[in-house]
User: What shape does this take?
Amino acid sequence: MVKLKSFFLSIILCGMAQIRSHASPPKYKLSFTIKGLENKVCLLGFYYGDKTYISLDKYGKDDTVIADSHGSFTFTRDTTLARGIYFILTRSKKSFQFIIDNEQKFEIEGDTAGDFLTNLKAKGSPENSMFFDYLRYVTLKHIEVIKYEKEKNQPMIDTLNAEVKRYKEDFIRKHPGMLLSTVFRANEKPVIPPTPKLPNGRPDSTFPYRYYKAHFFDYVDFSDGRLVRTPVIYPLIKQYLDKLTMPIPDSVIAAADYLVGMAKANKEMFKFIVAYITSVYQTSNIMGMDAVFVHMVDKYYTPEQAYWVSPTQMERLKERAAQLEPILIGKHVPSLILPDTSQVMQSIDSVRARYTVLYFWDYDCGFCQKETPKLIKWYDSIKGEGVEVYAVETNDNDFKKWKDYIRKHKLDWINVADIYHTSNFHHQFDIISTPVIYVLDEFKKIIAKNIDVNELNKVIKHDIELQNSRTK
Assistant: This one.
């Protein structure tokens, strides 16, 4: 199976494999005869969120078969397939999609020559016959749209789009329970009504955004777990979180809880959305978003809710969240008391400054040797303006070299190191590599972390503006 980039989605697939191995529903049988695939290796794949995977056989290996001399091959097993959109993939990258729903015994014929899609036919699966008809229809309409785009003929483009919309609405009306109808509905966007006026007579400029966000999922059936195994649900979740939600932890946490609340209507949907959000914000490059990860683990990763996670994995997640929680933005910095070059103990809480830059570095680190001179220059330019640097040497191999570096480069801020090997600051402050910068306010609350020296002025300026706005 194609490997997941995310630790959490790996957990999901393990969970799926366990569920399948213990289930004993009627077997499925998918038979194919595709000209052009004679004697070719063919794989059965499926969508899961934003990823595609190769299905596993009963031995836990890629579900792979070799077509015979007529291009015929079959996938069969004594378990049902999870419902969704699947595909056949070949080593030559030739592929086509089909639907797995209630019908799990059918045949598909085709020919890779020319227009592959035109030749696809399904036997024993009316839904796939209609799916192929739709794909052919929308492909022709797309070709026409491209033609009119080149001619800049917007009226004809609008007409074609309206035709496709009517096609989908007619299909939904005739086949309300089919997966394709659920997919069509999920892709519908809310229509924003006319903007109302405020009491002062001016249009409410925020109304379109607020309405669109509030109704963004009106047509998505979160109780339908089939959507998880289609290419549809992931882009919607991503757009909602990335484009319609303010990129600040409190807003994202509220959005995450809203999504999970709707997803509770279906176990598969709940599993996907919880794991996806947790994964995204564990590895987010946006400062402060680790708070979302901590929130997700604290609220949803219990044995009763996260049923797909093993006890070992659960413990690992809890430990990581517990490590990050004390160093989230807005938290008081953990206690840090270390000796300076004269072996005098210096406490971070005793630093008297409006802003304190907590700098974890290593005199022998290449990146530090680039950043430290920048920090020296910045510190010299702002010295005396209520800013102090508390620099922690992370390398305990040679304290003499550390002192020599300080003397040579005239680091006249607070320099400390774990000379007596009594501190656990590496774990406490999540120091995996150096340099690492934290910015603290006068009360020693964390206002920024994991930033470059070049961002210090921006961070401090923003905080000063924020403080001033609160006093007005």
Summary: The longest strand covers residues 28-35. The chain is about 40% helix and 20% strand.
